[in-house]
UniProtKB/TrEMBL annotation:
Iron-sulfur subunit of the cytochrome bc1 complex, an essential component of the respiratory electron transport chain required for ATP synthesis. The bc1 complex catalyzes the oxidation of menaquinol and the reduction of cytochrome c in the respiratory chain. The bc1 complex operates through a Q-cycle mechanism that couples electron transfer to generation of the proton gradient that drives ATP synthesis. PROSITE patterns: RIESKE. The keyword Lipid biosynthesis does not apply. Residues 269-363 form the Rieske domain. This is Cytochrome bc1 complex Rieske iron-sulfur subunit. It holds the Pfam family QcrA_N. It comes from Haloechinothrix salitolerans.
Length: 382
């Protein structure tokens, strides 16, 4: 039996008895490969330059492992809970949480990449080969070509001398291990804190900062003026017809509590869009079943957290009465209980029930949202 080049091919029995060097030679001959140059990167073994190169590469891999370990430590134990600027020490470390995650992970990946590049440059043979290729008449590679190709790969690994470079192997193993551990822990990190631990309070997934903490408590609609410690409440006459304003919860008990005032405007699920419809538009409103009394006259309040992936729905189009999310272009109809009419969102925005406090004349929330705000999660029933 012979190939198109009239080369005598070995039988299956002969092929099984060949060692790697013989398979490499046979594969090159069958594939029409001519090795113009196949230099040994280190013809003289054990030189100082070779050892120095090995130590340098091992150092980069070790650095990758150390940075990967630092990433895990920062992700799990670094102070991540918000601390106000008034608590200078805690606030300083809190501000460094996200930068530390980025720096440690970036250094780990960069160091590992540098180690691989240096190893390829210093220890992988840089042969020069000329080869004529065909696709075996469209049939792909047969068993003979697969075995000889595998032999070529094994030979390249052997010539790279990785098997006898324990420092590099240990460093690379450490780096890969830490990066792999970080990859495995990253999706699990959210389970370290039980999201339902405080499910009955305003800190749970089912509630927001608009939840009354005690019976009869009044939670007012508060403007944000740029100063988180300034309290400016909203009266109906403060908004023109066809306008929208972002508001936050305020309790009288928090008036002199700078930390609580700051948290109220920083908490992710607190922002609410207060919309005052034009009279001619208010007549066209279609209310959601069970939420017929959630508005106060022409005033409607919807969460600012998009039901798609939680972006801020910060745009309101007066002419069409549509609420827009700039992240993925979801649109919600303010005249139909903020139900989605365009884009990937599939649920209406949660509506906050509001009314007027007869004693002060300020707008206030009747109670918290009756459904979780924002995107879905496993246990969500709506």
């Amino acid at each position: 039996m012979s190939s198109g080049n009239d080369q005598q091919l070995p039988t299956e029995a002969e092929l099984a008895e060949m060692d790697r060097d013989q398979l490499v030679a046979l594969g090159g001959k069958l594939d029409g490969v001519e090795l113009a140059e196949y230099p040994d990167p280190w013809p003289v073994k054990g030189t100082r330059a070779e050892k120095r190169a090995e130590r340098t590469i091992a150092l980069w891999f070790t650095l990758a492992g150390v940075a990967g370990l630092a990433f895990l430590i920062a992700m799990i134990w670094w102070p991540w809970q918000y601390a106000p600027p008034t608590e200078s020490s805690q606030h300083f470390w809190y501000q460094l949480y996200t930068p530390m995650l980025g720096i440690t992970l970036g250094v780990a990946i960069l160091a590992f990449a540098v180690g691989i590049l240096l190893y390829t440059k210093k220890f992988i043979p840089h042969e020069v080969a000329v080869q004529q290729r065909d696709d075996n008449m469209g049939a792909g590679s047969d068993e003979l070509h697969r075995q000889t190709f595998a032999a070529h790969l094994a030979d390249a690994g052997n010539r790279s001398t990785v098997a006898r470079r324990s420092a590099i192997k240990r460093g690379a193993g450490f780096g890969v291990g830490m990066l792999g551990l970080g990859t495995a822990i990253l999706p699990l990190i959210g389970f370290i804190k039980n999201p339902h631990k405080d499910s009955g309070t305003k800190d749970g997934l089912y509630h927001t900062g608009w939840k009354q903490e005690k019976p009869g408590e009044k939670v007012f609609l508060r403007r944000y003026t740029g100063n988180p410690h300034e309290v400016v409440l909203v009266r109906p006459e403060d908004l023109d017809a066809g306008s929208m304003e972002t508001v936050f919860p305020f309790r009288e008990s928090e008036r002199d509590d700078e930390h609580a005032l700051l948290v109220a405007v920083k908490r992710a699920d607190n922002p609410v869009m207060l919309i005052r419809l034009r009279p001619q538009d208010a007549e066209k409103v279609v209310k959601r079943k069970g939420q017929e009394d959630f508005n106060y006259g022409d005033f409607y309040a919807y969460t600012k957290i998009c039901s798609h992936v939680g972006c801020p729905t910060s745009l309101y189009e007066q002419r069409t009465n549509r609420i827009l999310c700039p992240c993925h272009q979801s649109q919600f109809d303010a005249l139909q209980y903020a139900k989605p009419v365009f884009g990937p969102a599939t649920r209406a925005l949660a509506q906050l029930p509001i009314t007027l406090d007869p004693e002060t004349g300020y707008l206030m929330a009747k109670h918290d949202f009756i459904e979780p705000v924002g995107p879905g999660f496993w246990e969500r029933k709506s």
